[in-house]
Amino acid sequence: MAKKPAAPAISIGISDKDRAAIVAGLSKLLAETYTLYLTTHNFHWNVTGPMFNSLHAMFMAQYTELWTAVDPIAERIRSLGHPAPGSYAQFAKLSGLPDAPATPPKALEMVRILKEGHEAVARTARAIFPAVEKASDEPSADLLTQRITVHEQTAWMLRSLLEE
Known about the structure:
The protein is an all-alpha fold. It has helices spanning 16-46, 52-79, 88-94, 107-127, 129-134, 138-162. The protein is 72% helix and 0% strand. Helix 1 (16-46) packs antiparallel against helix 2, helix 2 runs antiparallel to helix 6 and helix 4 (107-127) runs antiparallel to helix 6 (138-162). It starts with 15 loop residues before the first helix and ends with a helix.
């Protein structure tokens, strides 16, 4: 049986070790983004109460943005030469976010849970920067900056709903 040729070596100016460190962080970011996507979509389906219309629409905009975000994160992982995680089991292992509650909470509790989720994902993205800066990985830095901006802005909007 003929031996399969090895994949060409990756020579993009980032060492194997640095790429692996960045990918570890991006894999956690991907898992948390997907977990937050699922929770947000769940809340979109299950929100009730006097704020239904506004929260239903807001949650849809948020889960759509999160859904769109997972692909660039996964593709950056692939660009760095590693497989992207993509199963519920992998995401559960990698993510620091809790799963959506089995019983849908009240509307403002949904808002609080999502606020905490966006803040946590922003912290995860920010924590990857030392590895990215060490490797001069500008594409990953750009991706992280975009993700932090979205998560911090979304957390601010959700916090605003919780003010009395």
